[in-house]
Design a protein that fits this description.
2 copies of one chain form a homodimer. Chain A is α/β, with parallel strands linked by helices. Chain A has a domain at 37-131: Helicase, Ruva Protein, domain 3. Chain A contains 12 helices and 14 strands. Chain A has helices spanning 10-22, 47-57, 74-81, 93-107, 112-123, 154-160, 184-190, 205-209, 214-219, 239-245, 252-259, 293-310, and strands spanning 2-7, 27-32, 38-40, 43-45, 128-131, 138-145, 148-153, 169-173, 193-196, 223-226, 229-230, 233-234, 266-269, 282-285. A 7-stranded parallel β-sheet of chain A has the order 5-2-1-9-10-13-14, sandwiched between helices. A 3-stranded antiparallel β-sheet of chain A has the order 7-6-8. The first copy, chain A, has a two-stranded antiparallel sheet with strand order 3-4. In chain A, helix 1 (10-22) links the parallel strand 1 (2-7) and strand 2 (27-32). In chain A, helix 1 (10-22) crosses helix 12, helix 2 packs parallel to helix 5 (112-123) and helix 4 (93-107) crosses helix 5 (112-123). Chain A binds chain B through residues 41-43, 72, 74-75, 78-79, 81-84, 93-94, 96-98, 100-101, 103-104, 107, 118-119, 121-122, and chain B through 41-43, 72, 74-75, 78-79, 81-84, 93-94, 96-98, 100-101, 103-104, 107, 118-119, 122.
Chain lengths: 311, 311
């Protein structure tokens, strides 16, 4: 079986671990969000790709959900001693090495997809991980405060401000010119089923869907989504702050409608959201809390079962 | 008193610490060798500038003589886990931060002299440290082995091969186009005395002297050199391997003749080299082993005394 999954960071990565466990013989291709990517200290950081890679490759800080296990922070402290900004982004020493390799390879002319493949030869995540695009895109967030109305990088809004300022707009800079990375559309076309994990529907899945050609390719396939909202609250993270910014209610129903019946064929919701319905979409209610690897695998299995019913 | 000193790495840096101690009220400008500079993992490394900066700023690994005290090596180990080369150059985590700052500033368009000044605002080395040139120069060494005759970067010859292959030629790539960094010639012109520490006469002092305009400026001044050779052996390092490459005997006499009486006015030699002589040069014999900070300060004081006799 060939499975394609789109993925953001922590939630997506944990779901993918469940998916691997639920379908150990499947060939899984993961299309990763790169809208969160940022250049820090001259180094290119791809937080979501790395979270997927580290999580599936056994290198993740399990408690934190991002960054490397057994991490130290000497480089970051030294950069701070030089007065370097920003100091609000958590880069550990082990993680720095990844960004150094990425930056060196990008500088040598390799596209991000080939860089990611090279990094994955070390991590052996057990899936094929492809960035959504080799073209540079960055999610920027429009906020207003005493300094006026301005666009800041998504990471500044998310990590530094903890989404404390309302997002007035969320814009994927570069979206108009971004093409899917090599292999992305082909993987979708060859897929038996596409699974959307409970990643952020705006700044993770929504970002990937903005890359021209990806949504179009997906509408031709059987797509099963796992609701990122349980009983009016995000599974994890601050998806509500993002949904509010684009005028979508924080509910399993509203997110389904936002994705649309042209995209979604099956929608997995939590048991408390059993009433969710949309014409042309088969909705199934199951326990959706990714409380541990077994529960997560069960959710992935339910998504695959739903896909099986639909095909 | 205004003192200018040229300097390579470990030996030069230790001598400079002695010079500061011997002339606490002097305004010391250090012209640093950048021929050893190398790009590793996409990061620009200036080993000699950093050794001077860390040594005078209290951050050096005293035992090793280079790199940072209390250093860890997580980034290097991680890079190796990615299969990155080279693995023979010792970069610690604290040191990496310096190279990240330097590379980011160079990438933003700042010349190396301004980058060095910025780094020194943290380290407060107590001297003005200027790279010999903002232009890129690199010392390459021509060697022959089973792979044939080829030029390799100085660091590969020095650090990886430990100078085990004879140097057939030592070439400063970029020397023809390199101009002295801003402030270098001015500092020499304004100096009351110029001191050459016992740094490597070929790949440290010799490299600096190859930058057009520096040697010319120096010949107009009172220059006192401290012999890097004691009784036929280098004070430290592998200066003999470099001297052999350029056809100069490893002796205090030969190095003095190589520098020339047009450059050198006073020459400090070890007591066992008391017979050294050259027309137009005043030679003084003193204990020259930099065995501890006090002994080193005494050598610097002897150099300053000799300069005083000459002016």
């Amino acid at each position: 079986m060939r499975i394609v999954s789109l993925a953001g960071g922590i939630g997506g990565a944990r779901f993918l671990r469940g998916l691997k466990s639920a379908a150990p013989d499947a060939k899984i291709t993961v299309i990763g969000n790169t809208g969160d990517d940022i250049t820090l200290f001259g180094l290119r950081v791809s937080p979501d790709l790395d979270t997927v890679m580290y999580t599936l490759g056994g290198g993740i800080d399990e408690e934190q959900g991002w960054g490397r296990a057994k991490e130290s922070h000497v480089v970051k402290e030294e950069l701070a001693a030089y007065g370097m900004q920003p100091q609000w982004f958590g880069l550990g020493d082990r993680d720095f090495a990844t960004h150094i390799v990425r930056t060196q390879m990008l500088g040598a002319g390799f596209p991000l997809s080939q860089v990611t493949e090279a990094l994955c030869t070390r991590w052996q995540p057990g899936v094929r991980l492809i960035p959504m695009s080799d073209d540079r895109t960055e999610t920027h967030v429009v906020v207003s405060d005493s300094q006026g109305r301005r666009a800041i990088h998504f990471q500044e809004w998310w990590v530094r401000l903890r989404a404390s300022l309302p997002a007035e707009e969320i814009v994927l800079v570069g979206a108009d010119d971004a093409r899917p990375a090599p292999g992305v559309v082909e993987a979708i076309q060859e897929a038996d089923v596409v699974i959307l994990p409970p990643s952020n529907p705006v700044v993770s899945i929504g970002t990937i869907l903005q890359v021209k050609g990806i949504r179009e390719a997906l509408t031709a396939k059987t797509v099963v989504g796992v609701s990122p909202i349980i009983g009016g609250a995000p599974v994890r993270g601050m998806a509500d702050a993002c949904l509010t910014a684009i005028g979508v209610e924080t509910s399993a129903q509203a997110v389904l409608e936002h994705y649309g019946a042209d995209l979604i064929d099956g929608w997995l919701v939590a048991e408390e959201d059993a009433g969710v319905a949309l014409d042309g979409v088969r909705v199934v209610a199951r326990p959706l809390l990714m409380s541990d690897p077994e529960a997560t695998a069960a959710i992935a299995r339910a998504a695959l079962d739903l896909a099986g019913e639909l095909t």
